C-alpha cells in the first residue's frame, strides 16, 4: 500500500528498495540553475502530445514529450519512430553532467512535460529491444516533486516510491526494466509543472 510506506524525509525514498536497481542523487543541478533550464526547455522544445492506440480507441498521451538524439541515432531510429531533434547546447551540458555519474555515454534523451497533476505516465518498463538488456537510464527532474513508483512485475505487493525532487538525478539500472515496472501517478492534489529527462543509449 503506497499510503503505508515510510519515507526518509531527507531523501524522499521509501525504505526497503532492493539494492542495485536505482541510485538517487539530489541536487545534481542547483535550485536557480534548474529553474532557468526548465523555463528554457519548456519554451523551446517542440513539445508533442502523442496519440496511442488503446484497443479500438485513439487516446492522447497524458503528458507532452519530445526526444533528442545524435545524428547517428537519428539515421537508425527514424525508420521506426518520429524523427528526433538534434542535441542543443543546454541538453549537451546536462548530458555531460550525468554521464560520469552514470558511467555511460548516452546517445539520446526523452523529455516528458507533466503540465499538472492530471498528467502522468502509466505503469510500464523501458525494456524495448533498442535499449538492450539491463539498460542504464539517467533520469533528471525539474519543477514539481512527483512520486516515482516502482512495483515488481510478478508480485505487485512489492512496491516502493521515490520522490523525485527539483534538480535531482535518478539512475535506473540492473534488472529494474526487466523485473519491475514504474509510473508517475496522477494526483488529485494541486500540482505545478514538472519536466523529466531520461538519457538513454539506443542501439
Ligand atoms: O517522468 C518520469 O520520472 C519517468 C518517465 C518515464 O518513465 C519514461 O519516460 O519512460
Ligand atoms: Fe520509463
UniProtKB/TrEMBL annotation:
Organism this protein belongs to: Pedobacter helvus
Protein name in UniProt: Alpha-ketoglutarate-dependent dioxygenase AlkB family protein
Claim: Oxidoreductase is one of the keywords in the record: yes
Keywords: Dioxygenase, Oxidoreductase
Chain ranges of the Fe2OG dioxygenase domain: 105-203
Record bears the keyword Oxidoreductase: yes
InterPro entries for this protein: AlkB-like, AlkB-like_sf, ALKBH3, Oxoglu/Fe-dep_dioxygenase_dom
Molecular function, one GO term: dioxygenase activity
Amino acid at each position: 500500500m503506497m499510503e503505508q510506506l515510510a519515507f526518509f524525509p531527507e531523501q524522499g525514498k521509501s525504505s526497503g528498495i532492493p539494492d542495485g536497481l536505482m541510485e538517487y542523487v539530489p541536487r545534481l543541478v542547483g535550485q536557480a540553475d534548474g529553474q532557468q533550464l526548465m523555463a528554457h526547455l519548456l519554451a523551446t522544445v517542440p513539445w508533442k502530445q502523442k496519440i496511442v492506440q488503446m484497443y479500438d480507441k485513439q487516446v492522447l498521451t497524458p503528458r507532452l514529450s519530445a526526444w533528442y538524439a545524435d545524428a547517428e541515432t537519428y539515421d537508425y531510429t527514424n525508420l521506426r519512430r518520429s524523427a528526433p531533434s538534434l542535441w542543443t547546447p543546454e541538453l549537451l551540458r546536462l548530458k555531460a553532467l550525468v554521464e560520469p555519474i552514470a558511467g555511460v555515454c548516452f546517445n539520446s534523451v526523452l523529455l516528458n512535460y507533466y503540465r499538472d497533476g492530471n498528467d502522468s505516465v502509466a505503469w510500464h518498463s523501458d525494456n524495448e529491444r533498442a535499449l538492450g538488456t539491463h539498460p542504464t537510464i539517467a533520469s533528471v527532474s525539474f519543477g514539481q516533486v512527483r512520486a516515482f513508483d516502482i512495483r515488481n512485475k510478478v508480485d505487485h505487493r512489492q512496491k516502493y516510491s521515490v520522490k523525485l525532487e527539483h534538480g535531482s538525478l535518478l539512475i535506473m539500472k540492473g534488472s529494474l526494466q526487466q523485473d519491475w515496472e514504474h509510473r508517475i501517478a496522477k494526483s488529485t492534489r494541486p500540482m505545478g509543472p514538472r519536466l523529466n529527462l531520461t538519457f538513454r543509449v539506443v542501439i
